[in-house]
Amino acid sequence: MHAQHINFIKIASIIKTHGYRGDIVLKxxxxxxxxxxxxxxxxxxAIFISKDGIxxxxxxxxxxxxxxxxxxxxxxxxELNDLEKAKEFIDNGVYMTTDCIEQESNNELLPPDWxxxxxxxxxxxxxxxxxxxxxxxxxxxLIIIEKRGKELMIPINGDLIQSVNWDxxxxxxxxPDGYLDLYI
Length: 184
What we know:
This protein has 184 residues and is mainly beta. It is 7% helix and 42% strand. The protein folds into 2 domains: 8-104, Elongation Factor Tu (Ef-tu), domain 3 (Beta Barrel); 107-183, PRC-barrel domain (SH3 type barrels, Roll). It is built from 2 helices and 13 strands.
């Protein structure tokens, strides 16, 4: 009989405590889309907090989830009932099992969630790191990449974005010949 291997995906980090009852505040990991973050945090669900490198399950208390903004949530865990115990978990990673999370397909991933991703091109190799997202023109949203101190803009359209590797936080592009020459 084989032990089942469980895969985990990091969804957040504990950034601080709130109040004397041991509530915690989570900050969404930027590799996780906002919708996936919100879907993964439900009353009664188990989240896993890394303690000495081992994922330990904790259950989200009823009526305790309070989304402060799209990146931050305050919640209470059944097993954490005092401030001192909760403080021990500050800066620890928060995980979900991958089988609990339905991975979103690439075309549902929102470009603002790609902040910090590496961009590599089919023909040019490493291009840079995504530092911003521009949707001033809704029909032509752009990702903004920093390369050697300069900003490079790539439209998110057609065939330019080939694929997104969620685990490695990397986007693969197929830029036309000469496109990068505009920025050198």
